[in-house]
Amino acid sequence: MKESNEKIICPITAKHIKVALVGQPNVGKSMLINSVSNAHLHVGNFSGVTVDKTEVLFDYKDYKFTVVDLPGTYAFTDYTIEERVTHNYLCAEEYDIIINVMDSTNLEKNLQLTSELLTMSKKLVIALNMSDEADKEGIEVNAQYMSELLNIPCVKVSAAAKTGIEELIDTVVKKFEGEKKEPKLIFSEAVEEEIENIVSYLQKHNFQAVNSYRNIAINLLKENKKTYEKLHEEPIWTELQPIVIEASKHIELHHNTDDIKEAFAEEYAAFNRGIVAEVVKQTTTKHEAKTLTEKIDRLLIHPIFGIPIFLFFMWSLFQLTFTLGNIPMDWISAFFTWLGTTIAPTISNDDVRSLVVDGIIGGVGAVVLFTPNIIILFIGIALLETTGYMSRVAFLLDGFFHKFGLHGQSFIPLVTGFGCSIPAYMSARILKNDRDRLLTLFIIGFMSCGARLPVYVLFTGAFFAQSMAGNVLFGIYISGAILGLIFAKVLKITAFKGVDEPFVMEMPKYRLPTLKLIWHTVLTQTIMYLKKAGTFIAGAAILVWFLSNYPHDVNLDKVYAAKIEKSVSVKQKALLENQLAEAQLGESYLGRLGKFTQPIVAPLGFDWKMNVALQAGLAAKEVVVSTLGVLYSIGGDVDESSKSLANNIRKNIPFASAVAFIIVIMIYLPCLAATTVFAKEAGSWKYAFYLFVFTSVVAYSLAFIGYRVTLMLM
Amino acid sequence: MKNLLDCDRGEKVKVSKLNAAYDLKQRLISFGIMKDAELEVLAQAPRKKTIEIKVGKMRLALRSEEAAQIEVKEI
Ligand SMILES: Nc1nc2c(ncn2[C@@H]2O[C@H](COP(=O)(O)OP(=O)(O)OP(=O)(O)O)[C@@H](O)[C@H]2O)c(=O)[nH]1
Ligand SMILES: [Mg+2]
């Protein structure tokens, strides 16, 4: 039925194969897709990297493949949202074949999910991934024998070393073309007996079904909802039901439990142990001293030194962001100045020239300028994600987080938030409990995202010496995080009351990421940043330019022209020209808007330009920088030699106002796109509205305090 | 009855019973923590707030509340 459907939709000769990639978390599903296609799916060394399904298309020989990357799942228990995504997909969507990806170094655990997959009664191929790691650890897997034992094709692959990939795809094609085979799964005698009972009952009544009788019997015993619903409507149900109930009782008794799921889990575990004993050989001696991971953990999750070590890493990252990041900044800055001065003479129209040079080049340049800093930050986050350190920090911080009403695993979305709030909001799905998740969603914004970094770098660079700026930057990030924790506590005791959720989290082994992996991860994010600068930010810069140049007041021109004519010295003339530009800016649409709403922010010490930049920043934080760039490039500046934005800021903005400004940036809404994602993940726009009110009130109050305190101290 | 929280670092024990509520119990089972599974305590955060254990080849972090719900016996 399905095939005929597909033929109608795609009348091409090539055959389509839709593959669902399923496996436990962190076994390398996403990386496997990356290695068969030219996709760059997000890969990281912790559970819960992929939280939504993604389709990847590629061609192989005569086949068109659609591979669906699904979030990893330990079992079909729907424990967290992202696991539910996988389960729902497998139950409700159309696909031809499942590739069950496994970590060869831990087959016993991985097979537990396979046992559950078998109840789907779909075609199945097993990919024994991480075979390179298994080799290194002296683990030998006999894939051939395993295929025979399970009656499922098993192929050794390594997504990292790109071995066995072709064989895997060939096997998938073969399986796709071939008949579906009944996989072997043997239970204990007691259970086999009960299955046999049900099967023979179905046989006796010649029950019509798509799936095998054995499959139906197992699903009935496992209390599979779908099978129950289907059989419920059958006439044989009245007779069958008591048989099933009786059988379940026997099995539960046999396992000394009152939970049939537990009984089956134990059955599966026993079977899997048997398989592993047959097909896996440990060549090196087992009593080998502690594994490398355990040795590293001795230090990194040390009860006393663990957290200081983590803080030290963070501090180093921000130092590097500043010191190393500032070197290429000079070059980029020089490039845009050169670009501006080269292009300017080629444009004869004054307005167009100003639009191109001050508006576009100025605005985009101001944002691109911070690419090196952003790259360093991204590298830091990529290292945290790919080495396995992420879960360690979650472990270290859980006790501390718990005090503030947060879940240890909240650390993962929170750290992601330092890069960009959008994936961070999505990765909050790894939290089981809705209240924990909402709470985390509400404070992700306190973790300053990469787009705010330019604003911070700009201001710290303007007001502090090079040697101090890195520390200040670190201070800004840490105080943001601490504020987040405090507000988590406040929200927990007011809005999100409730019991604490359990914390159980897998700690992956440490892995040395390849340069290529880091490169791709960072490159993807950097390109996104630059793309945004070239499109969205450029658009915003143009808009800001128009709004700040129009309407043009001719009267002002006349008044100043008269004055300029009378001026005696060159210096006075320049001063007057500047005053004119400033006055024109004040009369522009943007100037009027800024001045109109300025009384609101006056208590924070903001002039109208800062006011406008903050409002523009609601769209995206980079726009703050580009807007300041445009606004402060016009007027205000008398001394021609100091053109840089940082200098302009130092000259035009009092320190106390700058402090208040940074506080607002730290706290208020990240950007429009993120707010949309927030609403989606939180489940309602109502929450986005709450977030807006919450962050605005907090930002305003704290900025006011910051402003006053700084004024007092100065 | 001894539970996992009572164990010292480096101690190896066997699970005898899971006293957890339904959801957590299913979760623990899917991690391989079920009757007769062998566990080893690898690390403890200050005041045993959070502990790290080894189940088969997997390392797992648990909070003290969860660990207390896992009844164990000596091997
Ligand atoms: N040595 C080795 N490492 C691998 C291999 N495949 C994946 N990895 C690493 O394993 C980790 C997990 O990879 P992912 O592709 O993110 O795993 P996933 O299964 O998609 O994980 P989730 O999305 O969380 O379910 C990463 O650190 C990879 O670098 C492999 O074949 N060999
Ligand atoms: Mg993934």
Written account of the structure:
- The complex is a heterodimer of chains A (714) and B (75).
- Chain A has 714 residues and is of the alpha/beta class.
- Chain A folds into four domains: 15-177, Rossmann fold; 189-256, no CATH class; 308-494, no CATH class; 533-713, no CATH class.
- Chain A has 33 helices and nine strands.
- In chain A, the strands form two sheets. Chain A has a six-stranded mixed β-sheet with strand order 2-3-1-4-5-7, sandwiched between helices. A two-stranded antiparallel ribbon of chain A has the order 6-8.
- In chain A, a hairpin with a 2-residue loop joins strand 2 and strand 3.
- Chain A is elongated, with a radius of gyration of 31 Å.
- Chain B has 75 residues and is α+β, with helices and mostly antiparallel strands.
- Chain B has one domain (4-74): Ferrous iron transport protein A (FeoA) (SH3 type barrels, Roll).
- Chain B has a five-stranded antiparallel β-sheet with strand order 4-3-2-1-5.
- In chain B, a hairpin with a 2-residue loop joins strand 3 (50-55) and strand 4 (58-63).
- Chains A and B meet through helix 4, helix 12, helix 13, helix 18 and strand 9 of A and helix 1, strand 2, strand 3 and strand 4 of B.
- Strand 9 (504-507) of chain A pairs antiparallel with strand 4 (58-63) of chain B.
- The structure holds guanosine-5'-triphosphate (GTP) and magnesium ion.
- The site of magnesium ion has 5 residues of chain A, from helix 2.
